[in-house]
Amino acid sequence: MSTHAATRPRRRYGRGRLAMLGFVLPALVVYLLMVIVPSLQTLQLSLTNWDGISAGYDYVGMQNYQDIVASGRFWNAVRNTLILGLGSAVIVNVISLVVALMLDRLNHAQGLFRTAVYLPALVSAFIMATIWKYLLNYNFGSVNTVLRELGLPDWARDWLGDSSIVIWVILFITCFTLGGNTTLIYLANLQSVPQELIEAARIDGASSVKVFWNVTWPMIAGAVTVNMTLAMIAGWVIFDQVLVLTSGGPGFVSETMAFFIYKVGFGEYRAGFGSAAAVVLFVVVIVSTVAANAYMRKREIQA
Amino acid sequence: MTETMAQVTFVPEKAGRMLRRRGAAREKKKWTAGEIVVMAVLAVLVIIVASPVIYALLNSFRSYAEITKDPMGLPTTFTFDNYVALFQQTAFPEAVLNTLIITVGTVVLLVLIVPMAAYGIERVGGRTSRFLYVLFIAGLMIPFQVRMIPLVKGFDDVGLYSTLLSVILVHLGGAASFGILLYCSFIKGIPIEVEEAAHVDGAGRLRTFWLIVFPMLLPVTSAFVIIQSLGLWNDFFIPLVFLDSSSAGTINVAINRMVGLLTSQWQLIYTGAILAIIPSVAIFAGFQRYFIKGMSVGAVKG
What we know:
The structure holds two protein chains of two kinds.
Chain A: H1 2-7, H2 17-45, H3 63-70, H4 72-105, H5 110-118, H6 125-135, H7 142-149, H8 166-175, H9 180-191, H10 195-203, H11 208-219, H12 221-236, H13 240-245, H14 257-267, H15 271-302
Helix pairs in contact in A: 2-15, 3-15, 4-8, 4-9, 4-12, 4-14, 10-11, 12-15, 14-15
Chain B: H1 2-6, H2 12-27, H3 33-59, H4 64-69, H5 81-89, H6 92-124, H7 126-138, H8 144-157, H9 164-187, H10 192-200, H11 205-216, H12 218-234, H13 237-242, H14 251-261, H15 266-297
């Protein structure tokens, strides 16, 4: 084997295509079976009336999609997903960027503060939501207790049972973080902005605000694109907080698309209908990601 | 999307050098009032955001009667009664074991198959290379909810539903895309001559990969392992869907069941929450250096 290889022209090493495909094979098989095939099956199931447990099902054409479009409950879930997904993406990015700018200003103990800021990101969405569920309990929760002790008993309310505010409460809890990962990405980008540029602008008499908008902001445009895209992809599938805090209630008021698919597909034995909703979610993710990227890329080039 | 991801490049040396240079310049700087204000603001922010966890920690040392009588009270004694009760009265120990098996199993399998696949994708060349890369990266845009219903059906059909293996396999598929993205961008920077030399010396392709290439991938591997470990440990949705009541579930699933069943045992919920957080903090504390590096290297525009 070795003598044979040695006599071969050198550049042929890179062309051991069969061997290289063999390297890809294990991951490819798992990926196809766990991601691509089931996704295509979802597309197929979305055209059926499958209940999720029976052996058989019938094809009903576009019926599920027509039902979805006509379903007020689904549009409410879309609205909630937009509020939570887009809202949390924007808020978390703003908080993270402000925190990163503050960290960047530190000349001492920057590492310590960077670690401290990252710590909240170690707590999962599920655990955070579970703790908040108890903090917001009407009778014994600390939020209402504190409000009553401060002499504001009128402010105490059923935070998770009041349909007019529940989605905003969930948004607050979703954003209740310093955005650890996002902050680190911004910080790394801020630190790669050449100091010479900033100093030059300062010498020319630019104020801190002007330096930020005209020098720093364009230089970190790439990070903004990446962070916003990642936050939005995560935002479209917000689920843990909704399941833990309200289970979609009161009624169906606080359902998100991800929760809707879960509830309809497994809880209400309408797997075909749930699959159609999943296809819609997929389209939303693709379209919003591509559109947001195209928009932000354009801005980057102009900058 | 693909373009965004493709520009995520690994530049550890460069970023490191930059940090060091600026660090050296900083040592001489004096403390300023502005800096102290910034520190105070940051400290307050961290305390506010951490307050729910601190509250849960304090209440994990109190009894249910104490918590409901005075929700804002402080623990009077620091006993570990709740921690002992959680392990003795509930299925928590089994849930911890399950979470550990899922996390370790998935990470080990990922490290066995993903770097190799990324290497194959990069070295196969031409259109095949491009096609495989895009195929894998497309997975980043397929949320778990989209593939969830057929997966449950599929695992049920082959008798694997509600097994840890099903959870591990689902995680593998989900994490593959991110892994390929991370490894491919790094492998691009490795000169092929090193591999050719090893090959000329008589090493087979598998040996060349594991003995020559894989060690060079260590910075990515450490970042990948840590990010995945945290994500797997903290995951809730996938085990919720794939583990029914015949399994003790993972820590998060077990806590979720307790919320429904033990309505008058808040202290146990708080205790469980704290126990779920401790390993994440331990992983972070142990590997912080790699961690921050791994996070920072992504998305730094060279």
